[in-house]
Batch of 2 targets.
Target 1
Amino acid sequence: GDSVTQMEGPVTLSEEACLTINCTYTATGYPSLFWYVQYPGEGLQLLLKATKADDKGSNKGFEATYRKETTSFHLEKGSVQVSDSAVYFCALSDSRGVGGSYIPTFGRGTSLIVHP
Amino acid sequence: DAEITQSPRHKITETGRQVTLACHQTWNHNNMFWYRQDLGHGLRLIHYSYGVHDTNKGEVSDGYSVSRSNTEDLPLTLESAASSQTSVYFCASSDGAVLDTQYFGPGTRLTVL
């Protein structure tokens, strides 16, 4: 079945440092890929997404590129801020339910802590 | 603005009691999901629904039930609460379109004593 593997955290960085959170996946079909972010005490919210190979998703200074050849979707940011401290989830969607609906597959999440 | 809400936000109950967690969305989405989030396990799917009167079991459905009588609501019931069900519960919805972005509620923290 489908699966998502992301690096374990916590990842601890100083403000303005570069960030990379690795994410690799296995899927039987041709999935869409997502990064969700969960701020303390809140639900998950979509950060960015990509639907086909070589697509780059971007939002709030974060980027991730859909790499089909390496089955990866690594999250990157050039300069992190304290406000980026959160848990980041990589996810995929692969239409396999009734009428094309799907059940998403989430990674376990990576905690990011940014110090001033 | 459309939104997805959960109530209560915090709940303390005793072992053996029946508990119902509410989820209400105004996105008019067909798909609704319940997850639990625990340290070391990430998000685990409990139940999901593709539309009114449709319900399906997820990977950790034992001890939980749902019913879908309208588009907006998917209440989650713990038939007889157990300490192992202490967790944070998230409801989510999606419209079933190609990109299938999920929209999450703020969560309910449930403690079973």
Note: The first strand of chain A starts at residue 3 and ends at 6.
Target 2
Amino acid sequence: AQRVTQPEKLLSVFKGAPVELKCNYSYSGSPELFWYVQYSRQRLQLLLRHISRESIKGFTADLNKGETSFHLKKPFAQEEDSAMYYCALNGVITQGGSEKLVFGKGMKLTVNP
Amino acid sequence: DTEVTQTPKHLVMGMTNKKSLKCEQHMGHRAMYWYKQKAKKPPELMFVYSYEKLSINESVPSRFSPECPNSSLLNLHLHALQPEDSALYLCASSQVGVYGYTFGSGTRLTVV
């Protein structure tokens, strides 16, 4: 089955600590993976996409095909990073044969002062 | 303009009412989406329009009826909803292909 899994629901760290938000996927073929972030009372925003290999707000994510993972990392967390983070997989085939984007269950990151 | 605009932001409707949710974007995106998000849950896909044609319907009940009148607008017509349909309804758009989605801020729907 094609799916994306975020094994942890909650992560709480202190400011300045490193963070790693885990994401694993199951997909036959070349996956297209994204990280989305939802700050409190704000809209869902694209944070990273694996094809860009970019760093946004200090976050990076590397696709590891051997471990089927796309973990999100930041070396020094800031209080403003507190939010819900969703890993998403594009290309999941629907019953009608089209492709769709599916989200993991999300992880709530809290960065304490 | 780099936003997806959804109206209204909040909607309360009775089970016999008919209402519509609206979504608009002017980024030239030719794919538009409706998602449903329950509290503390991830967004769940409902419908996808590609080049103004419905390409995905995720077995959504017929009381939800999407419409894409042109490349900038997406509507979701609601009729005879149930209380369990109360949720945040999100609209998104993207270029067709491997690109990230731009989401609107959503319409928070309450069915009473």
Note: Chain A has a mean pLDDT of 91.
